[in-house]
Every structure is written in structure tokens, then in C-alpha cells.
Amino acid sequence: MEAPKTLTPDIRPKVIDLFCGCGGFSLGAARAGFNVVAGVDLDSHAIATHKRNFRKSRHLELDLAKTGSDELMQLAGIKADELSGIIGGPPCQGFSAMGSNNTDDPRNKLFNRFFELVAEISPDFFVCENVPGLLRANYDPIRAEALKIVDDEYLVIGPMKLKASDYGAPTIRTRAFFVGTKRKLHLSLKAEDFLPDLSIPTTNVGRALAGLPRKISEKWQDEDDGWRKINTQEQGDYFYKRLGGLIPPGLGDRESKKRLKEDFRVSGCLGTVHQTNVITRFSAVPGGKSDKISRAPRLALDGFCPTLRAGTGSDRGSYQAVRPIHPTENRVITPREAARLQGFPDWFRFDRTKWHSFRQIGNSVSPLVSEFILRVISKQINKY
Fold first, then answer.
1. What is the pTM of this model?
2. Residues forming the active site
3. Domains assigned to the chain
């Protein structure tokens, strides 16, 4: 009789991703060597996408404004003293220059709530992300109040304004990061440790989109139609080394990985119906310029993508964000193209619909940025 197999214990340090969205922060953490034990978000579509891609994590659809730390840890299936870190990006719409820019926006309180949960759970470290608008003077009281909650126990680095294009992503998306480590650990982290490595290759739009189908039919509206072959002969280092490399244990939608490996097919190549006059207008827009009516920017092959926006949810009018125009085709980009530009690998699978896919990508942290940050922290934690 064959001896039973013994399971190798997962000794990777554990983290929880609060306000996880589809999992850009989670992916960076997993690739940096952490075990993402749980993702937490109020958006059911985001949680469903996180579940698709992080099969061994717990997925908690919770309102963190109404969830205590004890309940959170119980649902996450972990004891507080087993948790290494808390990561997350609280809702940013109230702080965004493109959003309400309202100091009284009720969502702003969730920034404070993130730090309350950190103080109550007391992990070894935390990383909090938000829009640069949070750093404006009118939000000084909000930041000061939040950081005061953790000041006694944590040494906080930041806020640091980091641009994704400096970390190998083909987008100029810039975000503010706060990194906190327990004072008693005496880690030697400093802000300079998070500056981009000069050896990181720069990736422009052309390199990022290489190999993806350029001709997209407007009839490809269903998820099944969105599975399309990529041209592997066109793929460069960005695809193979930056995006397609390490897939940590338990990560990845099984069907996506299978189709990519066996048939070189990827999901999310969904078309958009454009009126004839819109196509004519788009054809006149050069790379790096914007359509005067829709304000959609035309991507330049040798340039970077502007910050991809998420639009609003159904609770705030379901406004669709402006999508960039493809650099050589007279159409807006597909969800898969947006994912490449944000730094997601081709095996990462988003929502069935364009609407929620674009929202999830636009709301996410670039995995390339989060991986860099968390690798720096991982080295220090492992030394400790």
C-alpha cells in the first residue's frame, strides 16, 4: 500500500489584503514571497475576480467600516500573532482630483479605518496605498489623524510618491505609499530603499502590447469570444520575464493557465462598438494626443500609458471612464491590453464583462510596483 503523501507546510510570511479589489496588491505580495491568506472587499465582482486568481486565499465580502478586528481575523482563519503584514488601498475617490475631492466624503473615513485595524491587529508591517491627491494640504488633518493611530508602535516611512513607469510598468500611474514597521523590530528600512533599481528595464506601450491581437472585432462582446491567440514570436522580455515569469503556489485561474500554455490564448480581448464618425475622429488623432470630443488619448508606441481610470460603480451613476485609443488601431483598448499596461500577467483573469474588468484594472495597484515594495520589506523581515 502506497504511503500517504505528507503536505509541506507553507512557511511563507502571511499577509491580509484589505480593500483588495481584483488583487494587484495581492499579486505583488505573492510574487515577493508572501502568503496572501485573505482578500477583503465590499465589491462582490472584485471578490469574485480575486477568488478566480487566488484560489488558496480566503475571500471576504465585508464592509470594513462595520467589521471589528477580531471578527476579521476569525473569518480570515488566522491568529493575530501569525500575521506578518497588512496591505491595502482604501477607497481613493474622495481624495482624487478626478473624483469628488471632498474632505467630507464618507469614503475618506476608510483611510483612517485601515490604520485602526493595523493598530488593533498589530502585524509586523503594513503598506497602505492611495492617490497623490491625498497629499494635498486640505487633507493634512486626515493623514495626521490616521498616522497618529499607529505612531507609538510603528516607524512609518512616507508618504512616498512612486510612478509605475519607474518600476517597469508602461504607465505613468503615480500613487502614494505609506510603509510602517514595528519599532521593536529595529529594521533598517528607509525611504531610499524603495527608489527604483536602475537595472529595471523601461517598458513602453509598444513593448507592452507586443503579441496581442491588433484587429479586434466589435462582435467580440461575450467572454467566450474574448479568448484570442497571441503571437508568441512578437513577445519580448516584458511578457516573458516581467509578466509571465513566477506563478506562486495556488495562484492563477486554472483555465487561463491551461489555455495560455497549450494554445497561447488569453482572455479579455473584447471589442467595443464605435460609430462610423467616432472611428473617423480617432483616425485623425496622432499618438500622444487626445480626441477633442471624447478626450480619449491616443497611445504612442514609444511612450507610456496615462493613468487608467476606473469610472464609478452603480451606486454612483455607473459612469464609464475614458479609455485610451489603441496606438495603431482606431478603437479603444481591450481589457487585456489594459491589463498589460497596468502590469498584470496574461494568465490573470478578470470579470466576464468589459465594464467590471476595466473598473478592476483601473482601481488596482500595479503588481510590478507592489512586488518591488514588498520584496524590499520581505528581505528585511526574513533577516529578522
1. 0.91
2. 92
3. 14-199+365-383 (3.40.50.150), 205-363 (3.90.120.10)
